Amino acid sequence: MAISRRQARWLLLGPAGLWYAALLVLPLALVLVYSFGERGSVGGYQPAFTLAQYANLGSRWTAFQNTLILAPAGTIAALLIAYPLAYYLALRVGAQWRTLLIVLVIVPFWTSILIRSYAWIFLLGGRGIPQLLSSMGLGDFRLINTPFAVLVGIVYGYLPLMFFPIYVSLEKLDRRLLEAAGDLGAPPWRSFLQVTLPLSLPGVATGSMLVFILLMGEYLIPQMLGGGKVFFVGNALVDLFLQSRNWAFGSAMAVTLVAVMLLVVALYMRFLRRIGAARDDVGLM
Question: Beta-carbon neighbour count of residue 214 at 10 Å?
């Protein structure tokens, strides 16, 4: 039976739309409603309409501060490591070695993040790198349960998510553009800034968004490598929902976190659009 284009569109988008509404929109709406409520006498949620939970967000400012500092810092650190690696594998390594090296990048994903975090606890603990530095006469260092340890775990855990979008963008790069830039007398650094980097920006944007959004809700890495001294909003939410059983306050924190994420992503995408528009204007000139 022939179907109209509109019906075909609904048939294609309907399942994904229902899945999106059931597993994202409705839970967020429920959390939003809870955020205006109060804590029950024995915990949980008590219906009400008050802004007291939002007014009390300052009591958990440390969690927001750690998240808003370490999540962008981890994203930038992962980008600074992933981009040169992706550039080297996509444009410099021969095809016979490329697959092997890419597999080595994927290998950490073959094991649980829990096991990898325990490995870093040992490496950064008193019997790991600090003991080695101390034996070399470089002084006593404390690495575990510090922001540095959390940052290391973040970069190590999320590096592949940053690497692969950038690698795909660079791997699809037309090498003839680089050759043309060289023929026109452009030095390698100018070819990189005016050809390679602009054409790889979609991969940079995708990788940065993937890593940043996931880091804003991170729980396990701060819990294990921060040792309860460096905690994110995700750790505070676990405490409020499962231990303190203050669902209203936890919902207010979750709504605030989502709002901050949406604001940051919107500003970032606007920044990228301006860069793209400026590049197009230069190209037209």
Answer: 16
